[in-house]
Amino acid sequence: MTAQPTDFDTPHDLVGIGIGPFNLSLAALADGIPDDRAGHGDRAGHGGLATAFYEQRPAFHWHPGLLIEGTTLQVPFLADLVTLADPASPWSFLNYLRARDRLYPFYIAERFHIQRTEYDAYCRWVSEQLPGLHFGHQIDAVRWNPERALFEVDFTQLDADGEAQALGRAHARNIVLGVGTEPYVPDPLKPLAEAPGAPVIHSADYLHHREQLLDAGHITVIGSGQSGAEIFLDLLRARPAGAEKIHWLARTEAFAPMEYSKLGLEHFTPDYAHYFHALPEHVRGDLLPRQWQLHKGIDAGTISAIHDELYRRSLRGGWPDAVLTPGVTVRTAGRVATTRVELHLEHAQQAGRSRLTTDAVVLATGYRERPVDRILAGLEPYVRRDSAERPRIDVHHRLVLDPSVTGSVYVQNAERHTHGVGAPDLGLAAWRSASILNHLTGTDVYPLPRRTAFTSFGLDNQNQAHRAPAPTGLVPLTEVR
């Protein structure tokens, strides 16, 4: 293994760790910053903003195991990497269509929500052309060098087989973390998911195991979110009528629709993010679990399609062999005869228990923020934490660090506890990226809207300086005497 030379004379203005949609958005918008807007003082770049983004995977892929045929994004195509911050960007979805000579077919199709495979292809198109992206690079450590007032980023360059090829180090004035999330497997099912034998897989790997699942005698899907619903529907459509042998379990009290009303969607605006950030920590902690239907429910169209398919299968006089049971948790699980799985279930409302034997299990149990403790171990002494030991994150999407650290560590999709349910939402990607770049450069390289929602989430606007003045007749409580 060779070591790449280290060049202390050419630090980057910004180094990104991870290349998912959010950091890809940031890279695309950073690419559009002209030389005269790249910053001032020691933040000024040469030839625009000097950036580099590193990703362990060999190429961009967005949830490849869930690109089920016909599934669409749950946000409009305008929620691409750049449009809501810079509609004229060359990295927009519409420009991708034009480059592929597909603009008119898209126009005629009148599709506001594009297919996931198309979004994946669009992001890959951007990633293959955008400069400064380094795939096949595993970040090993990040440290702060107080003598040079720079971050040191150690990485390992990987070959085509994922083996270590060379070591390197980059230097940066600022860092942005965009490592994304990882599949979550509940503790009772971890031993089965990690062991060979009967297929117990996470929904993130669904398409990779689809044929094996279809060959199983009986299939159980666990999880009541959009992924669980789409997988249940896909399996249902592929199984013979009257012999579906599918069980769908959910911990929630119902297979509930996602909140998709227009005013409900205003929780995914910059206005709400600012409002949420200004709330006391304990209020934010209490509020988040109650908002699950804003982002963990099922699209109404998918619910309708499931019911339509079940109803169609009942037209010949029999009920389909499909069981849908909400309000159930899996207490424990184990093997039966080496090739089957036994799930021990408990019903919350009935307080009853039962067992379910199945041949395959799909865990649509969601995702958790990917741990970065190993990568950021060198920064741990500087990181300030809240009462729950989570990193404190300021309104500019930065880790709150010891004042001795003069550089910034921005985060993407790791701030739901401070910025609300919109943190993982693609619709806020361009706004957050633009906000980070504006703060980093000290200029309004991307002018942002002063108001984005009709809803006034609080009784005063003192913590929402970006907002327009309060409507006539509304007197903030701080002014009442």
Give a brief outline of the structure:
The protein is of the alpha/beta class. About 25% of the residues lie in helices and about 20% in strands.
Model description:
23% of the residues lie in helices and 20% in strands. With 481 residues, it is of the alpha/beta class. The strands form five sheets. Strands 4-3-2-8-19 form a five-stranded parallel β-sheet, with helices on one face. Strand 2, helix 1 and strand 3 form a beta-alpha-beta unit. It is globular, with a radius of gyration of 24 Å.
Helix content percent band: 10-25%
Unreliable runs, pLDDT <50, ≥5 residues?
A: 40-47, 467-481
Quote the beta fraction.
Answer: 15-25%
Shape: globular
Radius of gyration using CA atoms only: 24 Å
Task: State the major sheet.
Answer: 5 strands, parallel
N-end to C-end Cα span:
72 Å
Q: How many DSSP helices?
A: 12
- Overall structural class, as computed from helix and strand content, comes to alpha/beta
Number of strands: 19
Please give the order of strands in the largest beta sheet.
4-3-2-8-19
Report the oligomer: single chain
